[in-house]
Amino acid sequence: MAAVIKKYSVNQEVFRQGMRGEWAGVIREGSVEVYIEQKSGDRLVLATLTKGEVFGELAILSSDDRRSASIRAVEYT
Fold first, then answer.
1. Whole-angstrom distance, CA of residue 59 vs CA of residue 18
2. How high is the pLDDT of residue 1?
């Protein structure tokens, strides 16, 4: 498996809760918001991740390969 550099603009979705997880990421620069959407439609922010942090690993390491939360770029990432 090769590393791929991906770039995201402010507010751009990286992936959505429930999607099949086929990769994980490491933030080289910028930041992302980890959130879940509640039944009311409100977003519940779980964390903000920055340079050096990993995201998306749960879906590729667990038997349920679905994303447990959504990720969006807070700034250019």
1. 10
2. 64
Phi, psi of 20 (to 5 degrees): -70, 130
Q: Take residue 70 and report the two structure tokens written for it.
A: 């959504």
Q: Give the pTM.
A: 0.87
Evaluated on CA atoms 32, 13, 10, 26, the torsion sign reads positive
Residue, of 60 and 55, whose pLDDT is higher: 55
- The alpha carbon of residue 28 and the mean position of all alpha carbons in its chain are separated, in whole angstroms, by 14
Confidence of residue 13 (pLDDT cuts 50, 70, 90): very high
What number of other Cβ atoms are within 10 A of residue 69's Cβ?
Answer: 21
Report how far residue 61's alpha carbon sits from residue 77's, in angstroms, rounded to the nearest whole number.
24
Which DSSP state fits 19? Answer: S
What are the tokens at 74? 């807070």
